[in-house]
Design brief:
This protein has about 375 residues and is an all-alpha fold. It has one domain. The protein is built from 14 helices and no strands. The N terminus is likely disordered.
């Protein structure tokens, strides 16, 4: 096997090539034995990180605003301020080269630029979390799958099928339905203008993050292994944190907010827990894009958003009326449509491969008979 587990976990030499399809270089590296088991263990770790991080970061971020936290830049900073935590897997991964030694000036500059875009995306997410219930926020963010399907078609040249288009239409209808039913869904103390600002910000965050995922898939095709994926993530999040820290500094000294109603200890525990949860979320997202694809990562995140809807209802008593139920049904319908389309596509590919094998066997048998006759 030309490419080994060392390259997935962070060692290895040589960059990953391009290539299309629904999988990146990492998912095609490992085909059997202990390497394959190690690959799936690494994949499982990233699935768990994505699940725990997505649910916890969403609920904790809203918890901050529910208990009278009001600083958007603080809520933005905590999303990326924990990037030093990613140094742990970087230094634990086996490698013959020092960390960050394989960065070219071009790759470093690209990571900084993408990090600044990530910082803007984080600000948009914070704005949505400040003014929208968790359930509404999560349903709007589910539209990112529609954006991802379109953008992966444009950037990675993956064809749009009928099931994909059906998914795009249904998720778009769900967002429109949520916008129409906004009057009954506004949290107490949130004006109509603030609600629509949160709605537009969340929709913008969904689109921007959907663009971020396929771009990162292209970037990860050029890295040497999982450890370098984490190194790329550290540089991007450091840039995002620098942008957010500038915003915090412009607003004055950062201290416990006067309106915060859970005391000083409760404030810093909330901040610390939110920092850790966001790092789990970003680590899981980056790992999923590298080990599978940007599309698969987006699908997993969309599925988890349905869990967030339930979490918002249970944790914060979000209203869940008829319009929101229909919007959730449309999201699940669109998600199911995509999964059915992918299942049928894979089934046809397997049948085609089986027919090709049969044809080859028959042709070889005919050649043997002809050879025997001579």
């Amino acid at each position: 096997m030309a490419t080994t587990l060392a390259q997935v976990e962070g060692g290895g030499s040589g960059g990953g090539g391009g290539g299309g399809g629904d999988q990146t270089q990492a998912s095609t590296m490992l085909r059997g034995g202990s390497d394959r088991r190690s690959y799936y263990r690494l994949l499982a770790v990233n699935y768990v990180a994505l699940f725990v991080g997505t649910l916890a970061s969403t609920l904790l971020s809203r918890f901050y605003f529910v208990h009278r936290g009001s600083k958007l830049w603080v809520a933005t900073l905590v999303q990326s301020a924990g990037f030093p935590l990613l140094l742990v897997p970087i230094y634990l991964a086996p490698s013959s080269s020092p960390p960050f030694s394989r960065f070219t000036p071009r790759l470093f500059a690209l990571c900084v630029f993408l990090g600044l875009l990530l910082g803007i995306n984080n600000l948009l997410i914070s704005c949505g979390q400040a003014y929208l219930p968790v359930s509404t926020n999560s349903l709007i963010l589910s539209s990112q799958l529609a954006f991802i399907l379109v953008l992966t078609s444009l950037l990675l040249r993956r064809p749009l099928t009928f099931s994909n288009l059906n998914c795009v239409v249904l998720l778009t209808l769900a967002s429109i339905l949520l916008a129409i039913g906004s009057n009954s869904d506004r949290p107490a103390g949130v004006s109509r203008g603030q609600f629509f600002l949160g709605f537009a910000s969340t929709l913008g965050a969904a689109g921007l993050f959907a663009a971020y995922l396929p771009i990162m898939e292209l970037v990860y095709r050029k890295v040497d292994g999982y450890r370098m994926v984490m190194e790329v993530q550290v540089v991007m999040e450091a840039a995002a944190a620098a942008l957010a820290a500038t915003g915090v500094a412009a607003g004055g000294r950062w201290s416990v907010e006067k309106r915060w109603d859970l005391g000083k200890a409760g404030y810093w525990v909330t901040i610390a827990a939110t920092v850790v949860s966001w790092q789990l979320c970003f680590m899981g997202t980056a790992g999923m894009v590298f080990l599978t694809s940007s599309l698969n990562s987006g699908i997993c995140m969309t599925a988890l958003l349905a869990v967030n809807v339930v979490g918002g209802v249970v944790a914060f008593g979000d209203m869940f009326g008829g319009q929101k139920a229909v919007a959730l049904a449309l999201c699940l319908w669109g998600f199911s449509s995509y999964l059915c389309g992918e299942y049928n596509k894979k089934k046809k590919e397997e049948e085609s491969e089986e027919r090709e094998v049969v044809v080859v066997v028959v042709e070889e048998g005919d050649k043997e008979r002809l050879g025997g006759g001579e």
